[in-house]
Design a protein that fits this description.
Structural class: mainly alpha
Shape: elongated
Strand order of the largest sheet: 1-3
Largest sheet: 2 strands, parallel
Radius of gyration: 29 Å
Number of strands: 4
Helix content: 55-70%
Distance between the termini: 65 Å
Number of helices: 28
């Protein structure tokens, strides 16, 4: 592609530690680009790498030009094919501004975008097809396999000339032993479920609950001091209600869940940094193929447990458009961290003794519904086979404290920013609408407010689910802006009487509906950017329909026991 390039050769510390060496100068000569040995983990070679990158970018030094296929070996047919195509498309490539060799190899691979840019005549297309067919016959491989084989032969040539392989490391041997259990055919999924259940138990029944209650007591203390100060200053009742019943009640209730989010992501980042998350993608490939997806799709889905927005964006790395669209439509079923305050709120208020069990059940329910929906998709909208999945399994390593703390800080910062932006605005709007009537008079009973009138329109829809209360309807609707709004809105509308005003069955219905209904506006915006407006609106309606049906089913089942 004739793009200025620098190669960072990472993990050199492990190569050296296990008795391996690499001829850096020889590799540079064969590749035609600067090769800089580094160890990212130990911060070695980074300054030299940055220096080379700046130099290459400043002077726009392009890689040297090489023929990667040898005309004298069994790839001679590919060599002749590439050069024949290059002669045929040279003028078209120049007009399109495409590097000639790049365009020639992409034509062999059948790249439609490159073919469109070249604007070839019909007779030229026929000539190209004849050349490629002749190459396939000589090489005994189809066109994609022939190009891949050429590249791997070149890679092997470079490695033979420059790399003295290290001995098998202790870390690798240990990883192989661990994989027999952690990624074994029969043990992998039970171990994964057990690990996640343990994390949820520690987070919601033990550590997280303790620190949450501690933070709640601090927030209550600050609220009482502020309340007393406002009373002593004779602040108007409207402003007093806005600050105490609006801001402190709404934002405070959301902020109190910060310890739960930090502790949960502490454990999840430990799994990721240890190398276990890569194994999850590996052993989930077999299951995903049965529902029409490849193991590649597990990465966006795992990201979806953090936030749907980056999960949707990460699908850009999927090579198949079919897999990409299908994965985007399935990621909202993965329970994002924004829903954690909802779960924690209802679990602590209604099911304190079964927190870990209910949390695990919610996550598994989301996955189960995603599987059913995936089967529907693969037999209707997205018929076809998933693309093959190949990935590297890194050695197991002790998680680095620096990486874990960084991820925890990023999640905490993101949560706090949302609390004091989107959630604050939504809280103020909800407080205003439930405090005034249509004539903008302060109401004594929130049943007479603007909010009650608007939310009442949705009561018939939610009634079969046992959610026929305008306050619950309002809370769920406010969750479209940001899922944490559900908790802040409930606290504003119910005050401290939530646990007495709502039954356990209603709480369970809210949990299930919150798990599955439309993702937040930020997630819908990212889906619109990737798939278009029609798909984005489709996701809103489709997810609400699924949430309604599943909640109704769960309510019917639970009503026989509760």
């Amino acid at each position: 592609m004739q793009t200025p390039t620098v190669i960072a050769l990472n993990m050199m510390d492990e190569v050296s530690a296990n008795g391996g060496t690499i001829d850096i100068n020889g590799m540079e000569a064969l590749l035609g680009t600067p090769v800089i040995p580094i160890s990212a983990a130990k911060n070695e070679g980074i300054e030299e790498l940055v220096h080379h990158v700046v130099h290459i970018a400043k002077y726009q030094e392009k890689p040297k030009r090489y023929d990667f296929c040898d005309e004298h070996d069994h790839n001679g047919a590919v060599h002749r094919c590439l050069h024949a195509i290059s002669h045929l498309i040279q003028d078209h490539a120049q007009r399109a501004g495409l590097p000639l060799r790049f365009a020639a190899s992409k034509i062999i691979e059948g790249d439609k975008l490159v073919l469109e840019q070249l604007k070839l005549e019909q007779n030229e297309k026929e000539a190209l097809e004849h050349i490629i067919t002749q190459m396939e016959a000589e090489r005994g491989l189809d066109r994609s396999a022939a190009i891949a084989d050429m590249r791997f032969n070149f890679i092997n040539k470079v490695c033979r000339a420059t790399v003295i392989k290290p001995e098998q490391s202790k870390e690798h041997l240990q990883s192989q032993k661990l994989d027999k259990f952690l990624a074994g055919k029969y043990s992998a999924i039970p171990v994964f479920i057990l690990a996640m259940c343990s994390i949820f138990y520690i987070t919601f029944n033990f550590l997280g609950l303790y620190f949450q209650e501690l933070l709640e007591s601090v927030i209550d203390f600050i609220t009482k001091i502020t309340d007393a100060a406002l009373t002593s200053m004779n602040v108007s009742s409207v402003m007093h209600g806005l600050i105490i019943d609006g801001i402190f009640s709404g934002i405070g209730s959301v902020i109190s869940f910060l310890p739960i989010i930090i502790i949960l992501f502490f454990f999840l980042s430990m799994l990721e940094d240890s190398g276990y998350t890569a194994r999850v993608a590996f052993f989930m490939d077999r299951l995903l193929r049965k529902i029409g997806l490849s193991g590649r799709s597990i990465v966006p889905m795992l990201i979806g447990f953090g936030c749907t927005v980056p999960a949707v964006m990460s699908t850009r790395t999927l090579p198949s458009e079919r897999d990409r669209r299908m994965t985007i439509l399935l990621t909202p079923f993965m329970s994002c961290t924004a829903k954690l305050p909802i779960y924690a709120f209802f679990v602590n208020a209604f099911f304190p003794e079964h927190g870990g069990l209910i949390m695990s059940g919610l996550y598994l329910l989301g996955i189960a519904v995603a599987v059913v929906v995936a089967l529907i998709y693969s037999n209707t909208l997205f018929k076809g086979e998933a693309v093959p999945f190949v990935m590297e399994l890194p050695n197991y390593r002790l998680p680095k404290l620096k990486n874990v703390i960084r991820l925890m800080w990023e999640k905490a910062k993101d949560f706090i920013q949302r609390a004091f932006t989107v959630i604050l605005v939504a809280t103020l709007i909800v407080w205003f609408l439930q405090s005034f009537d249509l004539q903008f008079n302060i109401v004594e009973n929130s049943k007479d407010s603007i909010l009650a009138m608007v939310a009442g329109l949705f009561e018939p829809i939610f009634a079969p689910l046992g959610l026929r209360d305008w306050r619950i309807c309002t809370s769920l609707i406010s969750g479209f802006m940001a899922k944490e709004n559900v908790v802040s809105t409930l606290n504003i509308l119910f005050g401290e009487n939530v646990s007495t005003a709502i039954s356990n069955l209603t709480a369970a219905s809210i949990l299930v509906f919150s798990l599955l209904y439309t993702p937040c506006v930020a997630a819908i915006t990212s889906i619109k950017r990737e798939l278009g407006t029609r798909w984005a609106f489709g996701v809103i309606i489709w997810q609400c329909v699924i949430a309604w049906l599943v909640t109704l089913f769960v309510k019917i089942i639970l009503s026989t026991f509760m």
